[in-house]
Amino acid sequence: MRVIVPVKRVIDYNVKPRVKADGTGVDLANVKMSINPFDEIAVEEAVRLKENGVATEVVAVSVGPAKAQETLRTALAMGADRAILVETDEEVEPLGVAKLMAKIATEEAPGLIILGKQAIDDDSNQTGQMLAALLGWPQGTFASKVEVSGDIVNVTREVDGGLETVSLNMPAIVTTDLRLNEPRYASLPNIIKAKAKPLARKTPADFSVDISPRLRTIKVSEPPSRPAGLKVADVDELVTKLKEMGVAA
Ligand code: AMP
Questions:
Q1: Where are the alpha helices (DSSP H) in 56-175?
Q2: How far is the CA of 83 from the centre of ligand 1 (A)?
Q3: Pocket test for ligand 1, best of 115, 174, 214 (most atoms within 8 A of CB)
Q4: What would the DSSP string read from start to end of 155-192?
Q5: Which atom from ligand 1 is nearest to the alpha carbon of 130?
Q6: What pTM value is reported for the model?
Q7: Mean pLDDT by 10 residues, the chain (249 residues)
Q8: 116 CB less than 6 Å from ligand 1?
Q9: What angle do CA 245, 246, 249 make, to 5 degrees?
Q10: What's the half-sphere exposure (Cβ side, CA atoms, 13 Å) at 99?
């Protein structure tokens, strides 16, 4: 069984994003970019399925600029077998990504597509669901456990106040939640080996997919700055301050 893992190049989760002065978006000049953390979890899960003899091949796919090759090399260093870059300098919305992934799924016939539940740059949480709809495949979103048994995948999902397990016929779509696994660090020998793994370069036009945007960003702004905290000497002063601020009676 083949597993496809879509991986997105995003602003590193340790970086505090700066909004451009004209409010049109986030400033990405000279900012560290990394693989989306939920996609790292998706790669880890796919590689574990291969190590356990469930999957035979793991294919990482990214839609983005030429530099997204670095993101794909990270996935290859973690254990993916080959990669596909759908290269574009345009910002591609979830529907465009889902349409491209649907075309690739039709060519590659995977048993599973494991995506992150959301990309931490746009927080859309849409691509996996749209992909399931376009392909007409079942979906298990926000997975905290994935177990394949024959043609079925059982996905345990984190829902409000507990866990829900759903059973899906494969081929299926799974999206990862934070607690699914702890991704491995790629070792130096594997980083070097990853350089020799196959990476195919395509464009959206190769798949006849229209990636033109459906949305226009009107404004991006920083969250309001919070006033600095106060140091108090003791509990009495704390209570007095809280009363002054109207938070305590
Ligand atoms: P989103 O719907 O944008 O929050 O993204 C959800 C998931 O879809 C991500 O965690 C990735 O697995 C996948 N994805 C979104 N955008 C891309 C992209 N440009 N290239 C590859 N995968 C993507």
A1: 68-78, 94-108, 127-135
A2: 15
A3: 115
A4: EEEEETTEEEEEEEESSEEEEE-GGG--PPPPPHHHHH
A5: 2
A6: 0.91
A7: 98 93 90 97 98 98 98 98 97 97 98 97 96 98 96 94 95 97 96 97 97 92 86 94 84
A8: yes
A9: 130
A10: 15
